[in-house]
Design a protein that fits this description.
It is a single chain. This protein has 318 residues and is of the alpha+beta class. The protein is 24% helix and 32% strand. It has 7 helices and 15 strands. An 8-stranded mixed beta sheet has the order 1-2-3-4-5-6-8-7, with helices on both faces. The protein has a 4-stranded mixed beta sheet with strand order 12-9-14-13, with helices on both faces. The longest helix has 17 residues. The protein is globular, with a radius of gyration of 21 Å. 37% of the residues are buried.
Length: 318
Amino acid sequence: MTAFAPIETERLLLDRFRLSDAAMISRLAGDPDVARYAARIPCPYPEDVASRWIAGTLNGFTSGESFVFALRRRDDGALVGAAGLQPENGAAEVGYWLGRRYWRQGYATEAVRRLVAFAFDTLGVSRVVAKVHVDNHRSVRVLERAGLRLDGSGHMAFPARAMVAPVSIFAGAATDPARPRASGPRVVMVAAVVLVDDDGRVLVAERPPGKAMAGMWEFPGGKLGAGESVKAAAIRELDEELGVTLTEGALAPVVTASHAYENFHLLMPLLLCRNWAGAPEGREGQRLAWVSGNELDDYPMPPADLPLIPVLRTVLTD
């Protein structure tokens, strides 16, 4: 996997999960006290199940279907839990769990506040919701301290517990002046696409004069619009930039780049596409080049793109 620069909070790193985390997930999340009010955490939690869950989080991150972060302490890198968002129709649902040994230390509140800010400021959703078992009073306090407010009640399936249980629904709106605000550099989400032709070459575009990092080459794409999914942004951007038509079914997630620039933090899901309609042309004054995987080193790229090259070479040769 490529290097991944975590998003930082005061005491935590919001990081990508690694396959080596499976054993710790099994111990922390498989604790009966942790799993008790969780809808989808099995108890016990076998390591092979944790490994498959990790693979799902990595795929979901790059496809944009969900954003699940490993929570690690900044001082020693210890895995303390997980927190994530699932965006849908301009809103996002937040969920989390924390190892029992890390309860009552404010980590959950710190993580959820950062995720809520990420949902509003980076993903551009209009509303964040969370559903919590009515008896989970500890999580209720976390959500309240994170700026969410009681918004209703209902029932929800808890498949890991084989039951349907009453839940309290908490919510927050982007227009709420009291909603959490991110501290530190803003996080920018960009969807990038690797177009692969019949000869196995990939398309790269040169950043034109007048743009930041002009003269460097990159994979085409652009920023997500407010409430826009990763795949929807990729389709729109390549239509605008290159005049090509993509479909969501033709986009396959590869990996997500995470890089901390001086003034912002970039998250860039990279999608691969082998089928599209139209001949790519530089509609914004950018030069284009079709290059083999071995030729990518000849094209200077921004720091966030460089770690993607070896991953891409592996994908192209599979």
